[in-house]
Amino acid sequence: MATIKDIARMANVSITTVSRVINKKTDGVSDETRERILKVMKDLNYQPNRIARGLVTKRTNTLGLILPDIANPFFPEIARGVEDTANIYGYNVILCNTDDRPDKEELYINVLREKCVDGVIFTSGINPVSEHIKQLMDCKMPFVLLDRYMDIDCLPGVYSDGYDGMYQVTRYLLEMGHRNIAFIAGPVHSTTAKHRYDGFKAAVGECGFSVDDALVEEGNYKISGGKEAMTRLIGKGKSFTAVVCANDLMAVGAMEVLRENGYRIPEDISITGFDDIQLSGLIEPKLTTVAQPCYEMGAMATRMLIKLIEGQAMDEREIKLKPKLVIRNSVKRVD
Description:
The chain has 335 residues and is of the alpha/beta class. It is built from 12 helices and 12 strands. Helix 9 links the parallel strand 6 and strand 7.
């Protein structure tokens, strides 16, 4: 592995000059010398040791991104927004997938500390997460919460307004004549799931109706959760003309079970999702859903974190983005 000494020898310059070029402090270094050093670095396939540089600069230009489930198509789009924006500002990203497990969350926080990352973008799958937030606060590491809202004052975060998104799609169903509406919720421990359920209840109540608790089932934001919840709903023998799902993956699972039981969508039962993942526009019928600005959320969280790292003033410590109703073919008007 090439060293700074090797580069200095081959470029016929001092180690100090090489170090200045590597750290982009090239005042007093001629363009010709700089280009010669960069060529030698390329020829030797030299890669600066970010951690070693960080001991001097106090920065590694690396961010950590902790996500709960990278298999969920919602999160790769967020990750793309984080990575693209980080790269623009000269940062790299280390991605950590926790599988919604608190032990892996704790493990990755410690791993990122050991890697000397400059800051962390944190989407927790666990609630409450006070101990993990405390870990980050205790080590004085800059961090930004993303997507999963935590009811802790003054923590910087970027969120999509799940309450408003679910309110929009539920109002649409009510305007299409539906009254007996089932709901497949997210995990009971999730603040995101709670906000979406609250939006559903608000829309139903505002129209003068009440939520039938027997038509509410908990899911897990996965296809399997949608299948299991829909199986339980059908098993109760209660009538409903529409089902609202707290995300698109559960809607896909619910649709499969409905078809297996002889129901046509939307002729017999209408269905909606949430997230607007790519799959929702490819299945038949195409799914009416709520689009979240995933890429923008990741980009904004990254810009917020870099401001924290670099000590810049922030206009807002909490940003809430508005989702958008996407009407497709999975809802039918009823009389």
